Fold:
Amino acid sequence: MVLAVAAAVLATLGAAAWLAFRLSPWPAVLLIRRAPGRSGREIEQTLAPLVPDGIEQILDERYDLDDPDGFLDVFTPLAAGSPLPTVVWLHGGGFIGGSRTGVRNYLRILAARGYTTVAVEYSHAPERRYPTPVLQVDAALAHLVRHADRLHIDPAQIVLAGDSAGAHIAAQAALALTDPTYADRAGLPTTVRGATVRATILACGPYDLDLPDYDGPHARLLHTVLWAYTGVKDFRTDPRIAYASLPRHVSATFPPTFLTVGNADPLRRHSAALAESLATRGVSVDTLFYPDDHEPPLGHEYQLDLTAEAGRQALNRMVLHLQAHTVRPADYGRVVSTRCQPDGAGPAPLP
Structure:
């Protein structure tokens, strides 16, 4: 009798759990958030020895007083005598996690190459859903324009950038800001004035909601986070959300773009699809992709590991992309930049 009751209880609990996973993304999201993985704090610790001296920072700046997530961080070389070309970076985290604090050291290192860099916080799903993060980018840019002089921002030379989910958000924000017809159809009002997006830098992002078959382990994970982000379980049938499949909607006005992804990244096809779509429309595209047999295999977010040769190569290619599409002021002073050596070797002057 006791065994029968226990079996019935277990069956009921199992059915309840199955139903919960079918009706809401929340159970899976909570499991994913608790899953072991390389945290932003670990990345920060790895990069700490590579951060050079001479970087001014403003942390926890409010870009929207009415938004509990409306914070950003700004990093600028101390030698900056005038506003600099500005890289506005959206962090990764699968739309359901992550934080701007996990890319602070990466952006300090990039700033040392002669740019103002900005880490923007945005809201997680499913607490807040699409298109909230894209609208938050708009609000952050408006704040940067209003305070451009104080923050060493050049509003005429904005580069939108991001990694993983942040790459999708940055790319969609860039598309909305440079293509008013798309913004109107997608329901993405752009209120920022006075900012010009000169380029984008996109690393390891999920750009096309239709690419996965949603049967394999990685695809099921992607379905869960996109369900959480969009608020629609069968998001592929929602015409409003279809505008988040970016390769179908990019136009010739999209900014010059640098795309990179590792050869062992499950999102590899997304970068290839976006690169092909942009090139077909005549957009200048620079890609850093790796052959299938590259050793060691480069997984998701490989570019954040600046102790590895591939990560250093990606950073250098990003800087070349910035140099090709932005111009530093004539009174820009010399700054120092890390060589990104594994042993944390001292900084070297930029050429």
User: Anything to note?
Assistant: Residues 5-20, 335-351 have pLDDT under 50 and may be disordered.
